[in-house]
Every structure is written in C-alpha cells, then in structure tokens.
Amino acid sequence: MNKWSPKSIVLGLYHLVFGVILLSNFRFDRWLMGWDGLYPELNIPLNIIRGLTAGWQEYYGAGLVGGHGFAATLPHTLIIGLLSVVLPQHLVREVFLFLCYYLGGLGMLFVSHKFITSVFKTPEHRTHSYRWYVSLVAALYYLLNLGTIQTFYLPLEAFTVHFAAFPWLTYSLMLLLEKLTRKRVAVFAIILFLASIQGFIPAVFVAYAVSLIMITGTYLILQRSKQAFLKIITIWTCVIAANAYWLGPVGYFTITSSKEYVSAYNNIISTPEFIAKSMKFGTLPEVALLRSLSWDTHELGGAIMQPWITHFHMPLVPMIGYGFFILASIGLLTVLVKKRSAVAWGLALSFVYFFGSLAIDTFPFSGITHLIQSHSPSLMQVFRTTFTKFGVGMSFHYALFVALGLYAFMVMIKRTLPKIPVRAVPILASVLLVIYALPVWQKGLIYQKLFVTLPGQYVQLIQYVNTLPEGRIADFPQDCAEGWYNELWGYFGSGFLWYGVNKPIMARAFDVWSHNNENYYWELSTALRQQNYTAVENVLTKYNVRYIIYDQNITHCRSQKGFTSSLDFRNYLDAGTAFTKRASFSAQNVLPITIYERKTKTSNSYIRLTPNLPNGPVALYADSDPIYATVGTYVSDTRLSSSVFSKRGEPIPVSLVDQLPLAPIASVSAITSERVPCSQKEISDGSVFASKEENGDTLRLITTNTQLCQSISFNAINTSLAYVIAISSRHIAGEPLNISVTNKGRPVGLDISLSKQGIMHEDYYLLPPTFPSEVAYTVTVENASYNQTTTINDIGDMRLYAYPSAPIPDISPPSHDLVMQPLISYIPVSHTISGLYIIDLPPDTSAQYLLLSQSFDNGWRAFDLSTRRQLARHVLINNWENGWELPATPSPGNHPTTIIIFFLPQLLEYAGLGCFGIMICLIGWKRLSERDNIKVTQPN
Amino acid sequence: MKILPYIILCLVAGIMVGAFLGNNPPSPAGDIVEYYGITESIMRHGTIALRPEDQSNLSTVLHPEYFSNPGYYLRGTDGNRYPVHFIAYSLLLIPIRWVLTIVQLNPLLVFSVGNSIMLFSALAYIMRYALRSSWQRGVLLVAALTSPLISFLWWPGPDVFSMSLLLVALFLFYEDKPFAAASLTALASWQSQPLLVVTIGLLGYSCITHHGNTKTKSWLRLAALSTGIVAVGLIPYLYNYVLFGALTPWTILQDFWTRTYGFGLQNINLQKLFEQIFDLNIGVFWYAPILTIAGLYTLAIQSIQNTKTRWLTCMAIVALLAYQTNPAWHYGTAGYGPTRHALILIPFLIAAIIWHSKPKAVWMGLVALILVSQVYILSINNYIFPVFTNTLVHSPVARFVLDRWPALYNPTPEIFVDRTNHTDLDHPTTAIYSVNGICKKAYVLLPDLDRILQTCRSNGSSVQGSIVHPDRDGLYITYE
C-alpha cells in the first residue's frame, strides 16, 4: 500500500477544514444581500451588456462615467452566469463568495510552500518534509485571520476576488520569475484577467500593482540580467493587457472627474470619520491583529462584529494573534538573513509596504500619512479606509511570512533541541488558529443579518418594470442624502434593484460619482419638504424622469418619523392628477411597492429637439433651479453668475451676508442647550472622555473616542419661510462641530460640519423653506471624536434671521435672456446600447438644439453623417445635460439627416479588450506554431 | 602588539582618573545625598541609619534641603531614617573615599574615581578573559570608551556600576558561562532593579540548553543554583522589607507619578520603546548613532542564525521594557545624553558588535566611523565633564527639529515639559517652547488652554492630543 505523501495529506486536511467552515456558515434558504455587493444574477444578460458598455453608466441616475472599474464586473458577471445555470438564483452569490474563500486558501497552500522552498533551497535538519504542514498552517491562517474574517463578514466581490487572486497571482509570478515559458505566461494572463474583477475598486488594483512593482523591481535590481528584464517586461505586458479594458475608462474618469468624487457631499461628510477611524486602527497592536473599522461599526445600535468582539475579550485570543504576528516578523527577518531569493526580498519589501499603508498611526508611517493628507486630498479620499485596500494584501503577506517564520522556528528547534518533536509545532499552531477563530465555526464568517429572504415582490417588480417602455425612474421615499437603503424585510445596504431593472434609477448610491445626481437630490428634497409638488414636477421634468417607484418598506435613515412628510407626497401620487398608477406589489409581510408613470410626456430615448433657448447660469451645486422653474429648458452659460447657497456645507460668504436683507428672529446661547443622545453608538470603555464646560458665554465641548451632542430649539417660527442661521463657534482640536437641523426628528437638509477656524467666528447658512405647517427647528450640535485624538470645540450663540425671498438677486439671468419656454419635440431614436444614439432628423426641422438627457461630459460626441462632420457646439443644458447646436443649413436633397451620438471614451474599454485578445492570440498562436514544428520534425 | 590594547586602556584610565582628580568634584545631582550619605554614615558609626551628626556633616557639602525631601531617607519601621537606595554601590565607594580622605582630596571625587575604577576594571577583565583577538579588544576600547557610558563616570550614581557588571556578564554569557553571567547581573540589579529580568533571561537560557546536555548531573543542581542567584538579586527587596516593611519603598513615596500611574506593566508601551532608542532628547541613537545602527543590525541579523544573539536580543528588548515599569519617565540623563532607562542598551550593542565583528574593511570603516562620530558627539556633552543641568534643556538635535519642524516631535509629555520649562516637577504642567518670542510648540493642560491660545495667537496652529484623564492629560499645540 502506497504511503500518502505530505502534500496529499495536507490537501485532504485543507478540504476537510474548508468543508467544516462551509457547513458551519452556508445558508441554503436565504439570499446573501446587504451592505455593498454586486447582484448580476438578478439579470445576467443585462449585466453582461452593461459590462461591455461600461464606459458610460447610463443606468446610474442621470448617467455618469464613474470611478469604479465598472467594466471589471464583466468576468464576474460571466462567472455568475455560468453558476446560474446550475444553481438557484438566491445561492449564486453565496457560492461565488465561498468559491473565493476556498480558492484563496488553496492558493496560499501552494504559494507558501513555493515561498519556503525558494528561501530554504536545501533540505535542512530533516525538516523539509514538514514544509507542506507549515503551508497548511499558512493556508489556515489566511482563512482564519481577522483581516480575512472582516473581508468576508461584509463581503464585496472586488475584495473577495482580491483575496482569492493574491496567492495565485503571486504563485504564477514566482513561476514566471523562475522560468519564462509560454504555458506559464498564458496561465498568468488568464489568472490576471479573472483577477481583474478586483479592479471594480481601482484602489485595490493599485495596492496590488504597487506591490508588484516592488517585487519585480527588487528582482530586476538583484538579478541585473537581460533575461530578468525580459521576464519583467512580459509580466507587466500581461498585467496591463489583462486590465486595460477597465483601466481605460477609470483613467478617463480620474483625469476628467475625480474632483467631483472628492467634493461629493457624502464623501465630504463621511471621509473625515473614515480617516479618523482608519487612524484608530492604524496603531501597531491593531495592525498586528488586522483589526479594522468594521470592529467599530454599529447597525441599529449593536456592533456588527459582536460575536468576534466578545471572543476577543478572552486574553488568550489576542495573544494568539500577536504570536502569529511575531512569527511573521521572524519570517521577515529570515528573508533578510538568507539573502538567497530575489523574489523573497521583493515580497519582504511588499510586506513592509502593506504594513506601512495600514499602520498609519505608527511611526514612521504616520509621518508619511500626514504628508499625504496634507498634499493630496484625492489620494486621501481614495484610500480613506485603508483596510479595504490593503487589508487583504497584508493578510496575504502575514500568512506567507507566518509560514516562513514557523518553518525557520522549526529549523531552529531541530538544530538546538533535536529531541523536541518539531512535528508538533504545526499541529499546535493549527489548534491555536482554531481557537483564535472560534466564531467561524459558529456561523461567524459572514454577518448573519446579510442572510435575508428577498420578497418575491421585488422579483416581480423587476420583471414588470423591464416590460415598460424606456424611461428614467425616480425611487421614493427620498429624504436621506446617504446612498443607503434600510428595508423592513431585513435588507440594509447600498441597493440592488438596478442590477435587475433595465432602466436608470435616480438612486442616492450614485451621487458620489456625479454632482448632477446629487443636485437632483437637493432640488427634489427641497421641493418635497416644502410640499411644493409643482416644483417636484419641475425637477422630474428637468431630469427627464418618467417613472416613480415608491417602496413603502424603506425606513428612514435617522428617525421613524422621517418619512411622515412623504405620506402627503404618496397621497399626491395616488390622487392621479399627474401620475398614473401602473402596478403595485405587496404581500402579507411586504408593504406595497408601487410604480407610477408621469402623465407629462417624456422622451423614450433621452433625445429631444428644441428651438432657440435662453441662457442661464451654471451652478455646480444648488438646492433649486429658479431659472428652470421660470423659463424651462435653458443653456447653461458659464459667464453668468451661479448660486452661492447650498446645503452642502459651504457657509454664505461673509461679504454677501452684509448685503442680505436679514431680520433677526431669535438668538439662543449654547449654554442653554441640553445634552441629547447622539445618533452613533457611544462607546463606554475606559478609553473615552466627554466633557462640557461653560467658558464665559460659550460652551466648550471636549470628547475623546466618543460623541457629545447638545440640542437647541427655535420655537414659534414658521418653517415654511426661509431663514439664515448664524452659528458662532471656534475649532480647537480634532474634528469640527457637526450641525444637524431637524423638525420633529425629520432632517431639513442641513447636515454639515462647521469650518475649522481657530478663532471665534460666525458661519451663516441658508435654511430654505421646509415643512408648510410646522413651528420649530431643532439644531443638534455634535462634538465627535472617532479615535483617541481629542476633539475640542467652542460654541457660542445661534441666531436665526428671517430671509424674505427665496431666489437670490444676483443669480437671476439678465432679463433679456428670459424668453418663453420653447416647444420641445421628441423624435424616433435608435438606442440599442448605452452610449450610442442614432437619430434621424426630419428634413424640415426648425430645431436649433439637439438635447441628450445624459449628464454633460466632454466625452459625448455628435456626428452628422450627411456632412461627415462633428457637431461643433456642445453645450450644457439645464445645468446637467448635453446639447448640440444644430447647423443652420438644411441637409442637401431634403433627406433626413442622420446624427450619431457616441460616448467616445467607451472605445478605451474596447481597445483594452482588444489588447488582451491580441495577447492571448499571440500566446496561443505561438504555441500552435511550436506544436506544428514539433509535428513536422517528429517523423524523423 | 597583543599588549597594545592594555597599554591604551591603562593610558586612557590614567588620563581620565587624573582629569577627575585634578578637577572639582561634580556638582550635587541625582541621588547623591543617599549614595554619599551612606558612606558618611558607615564611616562615622558603622550603620546606615542617618543620624543628626551625619546630616549636619553632609549639609556642609550638600544642600540641606535634600534632607527635607520626602523622596530621601525614609523613616524605617524602627523610627530611624534609612536610605531608599540600596547600599551596595556606596559600600564599594567607602575604601575609595577613605583613600581620598587620607591623601586629602575632596571626598566627593569618590564617585568619578569609583565609577572609573569599576568601568576600567570591567574592560580589563573582558579584554583579558573574554576576548580572543587584539581586533576585538580594540573594538571594545573604541566602542566602550567613546560611548555615552563615559558621561556617567562623572555622575554621582551607580549607573556605571550596573552597566559595567552587565557588560562583563554579557561577555561571560558568550563564553558559555551563563551562571556566572547571571550572578553578575543579579549584583548589577541591586542598583538597577529591572536588570533582574536579564538575570532571569540568562538562567532561562541555562535551563533550555541544559535540556540537551546529558553531562549535567541533575536538574536539582540547576534549580538550586538558579534559585540562589535569583535570591541574590532579591536582597534589596529583603533590605527594604526589613527596614521599611515594604518590598519597595517607592510605593510608599506616593508622589504624583506613582500615585497616578503606579509601578508595573501598565506603563509599558511601544512609544516609550521607540523613545528609548530614537527620542531626540533621551534616545540612545542620537548619542551613539553608528554604534546603535551597527549594533541593532547585528542583533537583528545574527538573531536568526545565532541562538545566543537571539537570546541576547530578547533580553535587551525585555530589559528595555522592564525599565518602562517606572512611572516617571524623564530623569537620569548625565547632561545631554541617553536616559538612564535606555543606557542598558549600550552594553548589549557593544557585546553584539564585538562578538560578530571581523577584521574586515567594512568593520574597520565602521569602527573608525564610531570613533570619529563619537568624539564629536561627546564634545557636545563636554566629554567626561557633562553639564548636569543640560538634562533640563532640549538637546541640540531636539532644538534643531523644534525650531524648524515642531510638528515632527511629540515625545512623552514629561520630556518636552521638563526640558522646555527647565524644571523637574513631579506632576505634569503646561510648557511653551518659543523662539524669539514666537511660539513653536506647547504642551497644554486643559485648564491652561485658553491662556495658551491667547498667548500664542496664530491661525496656523494645530492642536492634537488625547485627553481621557483631564487631570493629567494634555494637548500638544504646534505652531507652523
């Protein structure tokens, strides 16, 4: 009977462990939905087409380019499509995620063995037979360390694929650096293409690419040979070719629109908190254990990782984690001493890089972080949550170096203490890992609240909406700027409908990528609060919205009373004056989800023609569009002054305050404010401090690692009028004060951070008219500290001024530009895919403008096929959409003119796919020709 | 040529002792009152209790306020006042003081002469019995005699006593004499208690290596020997218990630091470990940069291959951490110089580089670099006559950084406060570091926040800190 090889035993054990984890955590009866996630299984063909036309994200609200690698979802959708053939729809995502988990661990098994072999080239002290067992420990560590757990606890495909791919990419890289063969190049290229799913979050790819630069660069420096150079060129050609298809569109976004991402409201509000929390987990003890901000994340009052937090209260558990960190450090030192493997040196450098990227509150890396924070806001934005970008990479490197450290430790024991049975060491390490990750065996790998039962009504809704004619959808209720949905049936996340619905949805999840989407929200929410449904209609018309989906299952982000004002809007919808109720889906435990269609005619294809248009101002962000309300469609002219007021946090400029006709209404001192509970969970361990001190006529708020909230009320005021609120404050340390204005718990849209000025000063903010029949505003001041850095702010008086007129004098366009709204005509258009419109203009058209209801972008091009020329004058219409001035002369022969509108940067994706295709063909062709040569020579 | 290192050693020893004898004794500093007072008491009446006549006599050479300081001469359980510092060091000084008295030299010179004898004797012993080659002896001379240890020769305290014993112990350890080494560190720990962890480390090494050694007759013998050595190290605790009824008198003192932080593991953190090596004021690195780099590199690299060095590295780290158990962090520098809490690293660095260095060009270059750089660095601290008051002044390196990039330097507040305010208080206070009246950096306690914000008006300030206990935590304000 053949003796089993260590490799076979280890593979068997790995599958046994994985099987137990799978059985402990897999749910056969639920969907795995929530937080961030991709759900192409809701409509595979639709998502394949979207992947192929990812240059322009037409279904993202008003349309946008977007900073995610949307094209990178293509391989994922294809895999999901294959899985959908054999699996029930609700299990596809879960299976895919577990597949990533399985592949990652398996890859670690092989790559760690390869790594040990590359460092310990000669068998030492009869321990070489233990290498596979040590590799098993590394694989288990990779599966069970906190970094991995947090990645899978709230999974997003880009991160889980990153987890699965990192070991295989490194393994194939090591093979390539060992020997360059076509087979190895082909394998590397294919793995790269499959791994390109990670490019959905481009920063993850950047993290990997920088690591690769370090490994290949070190290799090149240490080898210094022509062959080494050839290997590196080949590797990077593969990397670029396999990722070019999504890198191109993302590159275009980065160059043209990345500033929008940085200045998006959701990012302005959340980024400082994310950075502060990343700093909190950037200390050495936290990075050693790979703890991240999900440790500090709460949902509905409870810590989402509570089972793990409880488990880690046992002193032994973190000690085990630190023990493995020490092993990894020993592994790192081993590489430095052995000096044998250039790849190992590269990986050691990469280890330090990942460590430094996470340890942002640890010297000397904290200094580098400080430098980046000061000089590159966009880089800081992209890497605001360091763990999601570097956590998996760090986990991979820890596991790799744990293997090496453990093996070096065993070699050392064998040398110095030959009588100690070293084979017990991997067994002991494995047992410790089992204890370390005990919650994994108790359904703790994935957050249990992510397992939900998706009501069938949503599937019916998707199917029904897909049968309707083309048109943009507005989702309701709307009152929260955050792109987050909390459904009564258990879903809590960034949304999923659009993966099934084939029409654009004006959802908040997309606001971070385009100010047009965000402006839609500001304009809509302002009108809704005022219950001014004419204004609501105007907003819907302006953004070319045709349908409304009103989901009564959505709960408010702040308060249970939040959507009470939406009830009135729902009644308005049901009244049928402006909307036609198309369908409604409900069940015993599912409140109605209703689809309405507007009675006002909109374009089926987002294309329309208009005669001459007036000019209006350009406003980057605005709460309302008085020009559109007055004259209808207009050309936005950058020469005209724009709105200066918005609720996004910018105070009214002091120079303008003096010119405003402000009448004082009320003044309240902060000293009289009451302490109220904060919205966030307040931590109550020994590391927190909160104090308020009266300091003359101001109130000083001091907090460390917690929040302190004070509330001031303005009573007996008419909320249907506009006000300006003046807040005097001084920022001393940490975070600035956060201000939130509400009425009976309902936000009125002013959720902002005060400016960080070190002297006592006043900030003025516009409070536009809100609820028609209310008499009070409550201002909540939050002094927040998200880590051990103390926040100190002084707050003085708050004054409310009546602001008599809503439109601001200097934003109106010159009167001579105000003309009556011209007639708009709709024409048949061929619009088969996103980013392409073919229009036949009637020969007798008198229209002067051709409008495209997609967000304005310079990448849009209109070509006149009859003249074979581009339409030269591309203008911004209604402050958000595209327009082209049509040529004055009619087409020759009185034939219809065909105009093609195309989003040109889409070609970048096709060029990238072409590159990859050519590369694969070249590899395959060479292989075939080699085989032919062999066949020819074989007879001899 | 073999004798050359010995000649150099004697020459340097002669020059140094001569220089000390030819100068005035050091100005009173540190715990001189007890170390000198013990010699006074024993020479007068053969006991260590402080009697009025001792106090009267000591007050002629030391400030009388020493005797009203609650930190010295605690009242014992029998009602007499006894020194809180252990007496071994002072006992060694008695014969020297006796000789100095006979030759009519200032008896306060006893410290510098005594320290010199201890250090040079230790070096001579190592050269004679622990080193094999002239190269190693030469490296020892350069590394030790240009190290910051030299600044402590002038210091009226037992640091040189402890470090000399430790240095010898480390070489004995390399000579496969771990018990002898442990015995010496146990003695060294009499005056510097955290060194007991090194004793335990050395004994632990003996136990582990004993596992594979079939020649050793019994574990019992090993256990007995280890217990005996540890018991030697515990003598000061017995001394305290007998005299004061407590294992350590420091817990009785109840100054602010002890009351607030207490002695123990809770005071240990990585920032302090970093400061022990790299702090601009108290870190070893800035006072022996080449030795630190070469030594740490050698320790790290050789730790992988060499068991003893691995053990040495672990002991060095644990010992550094053990010093952090002390709640007071900023004290014990001889002028500018590494803190007493970090001085322990130097013998480890010296042992590591001597043990692993080879007479090759790279090492020769390094040793030359150590010599040249240390001659310059020691000059900043006035060579062997350091100005003790500099312990309350920012070092030139710290000043350089604070003047230009104040945001980069955020040490444990005690360091910044003491050196900015030039005080050595036993509680945290507010301090403003300014240049030509312009605020650069401040450490501020909450009650003083408004005053400092008023005093240092600037729009370009950043305030950072972590306040959890408002009675002792403060904020750093940096003015860009």
Q: Radius of gyration of chain A over alpha carbons?
A: 30 Å
Question: What portion of the residues of chain A fall into strands of 2 or more residues?
Answer: 15-25%
In helices, the fraction of residues of chain A equals 40-55%
Shape of chain B: globular
- N- to C-terminal distance of chain A: 42 Å
> How would a crystallographer describe the biggest sheet of chain A?
6 strands, antiparallel
Q: Kindly, what is the distance between the CA atoms of the first and last residues of chain B, rounded to a whole number of angstroms?
A: 58 Å
Portion of residues in beta strands of chain B equals: 5-15%
Instruction: Estimate percent helicity of chain B.
Output: 55-70%
Briefly note the structural class of the backbone of chain B.
mainly alpha
Listing every helix as H and every strand as E from the N terminus to the C terminus, the arrangement of chain B reads HHHEEHHHHHHHHHHHHHHHHHHEEHEE
Structural commentary:
The complex is a heterodimer of chains A (940) and B (480). By secondary structure, chain A is of the alpha+beta class. Helices cover 43% and strands 19% of the residues of chain A. In chain A, helix 3 packs across helix 4 (92-119). The radius of gyration of chain A is 30 Å and the shape is globular. The two termini of chain A are 42 Å apart. Chain B is 56% helix and 6% strand. Chain B is built from 22 helices and six strands. Chain B has a four-stranded antiparallel β-sheet with strand order 3-4-6-5, with helices on one face. Classes of the chains: A alpha+beta (940), B mainly alpha (480). Chains A and B meet through helix 14, helix 18 and strand 16 of A and helix 9, helix 14, helix 15, helix 22 and strand 5 of B.
